[in-house]
Amino acid sequence: MTSWLWAVPVFGLIILVHELGHFLAAKLAGVRIHEFAIGLGPTVAAVRRGETRYTLRLFLILGGFVRWAGDEGDLEDPRGFTAKPVWQRMLIIFAGPAMNFILAVALLAALFGWHGQPVTLSYVAGVLPGSPAAAAGIAAGDRVVAIDGRPIRSFVELAEAVRESHGRTLAFTVERQGQQLTIPVEPRLDADGQYRVGIMPDPDRVEYRRMGWGEALGQGVSVTLHVAGGILRAVGDMITGRQAPQLSGPVGIVQTVAEASRQGLDTLVSLAAVLSINIGLFNLFPIPALDGSRLVFLSLEALRGQRLNPERENMAHFVGFLLLLGLMAALTYKELMALF
């Protein structure tokens, strides 16, 4: 049970950084901040510093908010959010998700610089039945050491060589029980338009490649972009029906965090980075109550040259918030029923 408690610092950090993005951008723009809150629901602790009340609320992992002047009846406040130019308001809104991406880069860079980047070696854990690798005779326990004479050390290098083959037969050099064998394999075009041979990597065969902090930062950026691209492709596949919807509620995500904590700090930090990317992207979706929807409204205001009706906009965000709460409640109920 104690492993479940890791969800508190993980989500607390992600939410804190997200709201801090809004807060700092608003402060730089001169917006009056009434409240900076981490968590939702009843207030657990509060402190006032200047004109801002800083609060910690009961349901920490459900979100947070920055409440500023100009959104609650004080539309004429010269230091209110609505008094600022559209471009400044867009930057303030975008700063939250942007900070989630920055957090992911920082976590991954720290992990790569401190421990090194994990590299899955080119060992074969198994082959898919009916795949080109199975037909060629590649077996579990083999290690691919070269393809067409080009040395192969990692599974990433193996997959890259297969993708670049364009279906041309490749000469796989494998180590098997101390002997080297050359096996011709013809890659096959998969349903997603990629050439594959059906080899499954061995997740236990991993080594860590050390790197300097500059390279670690670059890798942090690269991996963050790669993960974000993968999430967007998965969302696109779900929208078009190519992939069944896969949604996790609070219980499922907490379970994932708990499992990661049992596997070690490296796994937990990696998961925190992935969750931060997910939350950053999710907030940019044009769903009422999310940052993406606010950016849409601001874009419409910029195109029209005048602000949309604030009451209608607030109502749209309120309805969106209720729908998101309903979805979260339904997912939570389903996950709790699966547990018990």
Defining traits:
alpha+beta; 2 domains; single chain; 4-stranded antiparallel sheet; about 350 residues; elongated; Pdz3 Domain; 9 helices; two-stranded antiparallel sheet; 12 strands
**Contiguous helical run count:** 9
In whole angstroms, the N-to-C terminal distance is: 15 Å
How would you classify the helix and strand content by structural class? alpha+beta
| Strands, total number | 12
Helix percent band? 40-55%
Poorly predicted tracts of residues: none
Strand content: 15-25%
Shape: elongated
Average pLDDT figure: 88
Number of domains: 2
Biggest sheet features: 4 strands, antiparallel
Q: Rg from C-alpha positions?
A: 25 Å
Biggest sheet strand line-up:
6-5-7-8
Sketch the topology as an H/E string, one letter per element. Answer: HEEHEEHEEHEEEEEEHHHHH
Give a structural overview:
By secondary structure, the chain is an alpha+beta fold. The chain has helices at 7-28, 86-115, 132-136, 155-163, 213-240, 250-263, 265-284, 291-304, 310-339, and strands at 33-49, 52-68, 117-120, 124-127, 143-147, 150-151, 170-176, 179-185, 188-189, 195-196, 199-201, 206-209. A 4-stranded antiparallel beta sheet has the order 6-5-7-8. A two-stranded antiparallel sheet has the order 1-2. It has a two-stranded antiparallel ribbon with strand order 3-12. Helix 1 (7-28) packs across helix 7 (265-284) and helix 2 packs antiparallel against helix 7. The longest helix is centred in the N-terminal third of the chain and has 30 residues, at 86-115. 29% of the residues are buried.
